[in-house]
Amino acid sequence: MAFSLPFSSQEFMSPHPFPFLYKPAIMFYLPSPLLLLLPNISCLFSPFMASLVDTLVVGCVIGDVVDMFVPSITMSVYYGAKQVTNGCNVKPSLTVNPPKVTFSGHPNQLYTLVMVDPDAPSPSEPSMREWVHWIVVDIPGGTNVSHGNEFLPYIGLHPLIGIHRYVLILFQQKAPLGLVEKPNSRPNFSTRAFANQFDLGLPVATIYFNAQKDPTKRKR
Fold this sequence. Notes:
This protein is an alpha+beta fold. The protein is built from five helices and nine strands, in the order H-H-H-H-E-E-E-E-E-E-E-E-H-E.
């Protein structure tokens, strides 16, 4: 189940009544009709899921990449032995090969995974937002991405300037996607537009991490 709220991480207005989403520098305004629904909305979040949403808001993933959503599936991401958690740092040298992504989900449902960089080519001037690194579709629930169809091949990370966020977004499909038209290019991809095109709705899980250019080894 997902519930969309009509605001983004860029709307710094008055404090909202979700204590787990409130940060001094990130405040939101809820229209009055939504205030009537607050008792029902808040019960949709377990403490664990609430903490996931909190980090996505603070990291501006909700706003820059996806709209507000209620996580309903647990997802794990590993680059080798390195577990990826929201906001952690990953060295680009570890990302040559695709990460191992597993998630719970429903065995009789299919899912789509999208991985993007919203900070390309630099966080201060993200003129290529979003750069799409990977898309896998038709993944059965309760498995990993190796059971799906690679819609767009994975490419490793190459953050040249500054610290980049890399976001993995999982959607639940309403039907098999099969062979569909691939994006014309990787830069200026839109996760929202892709989800709208294939009627994917809001995400069911999202994880993001940070990466910056590996330091150059000095010659002795």
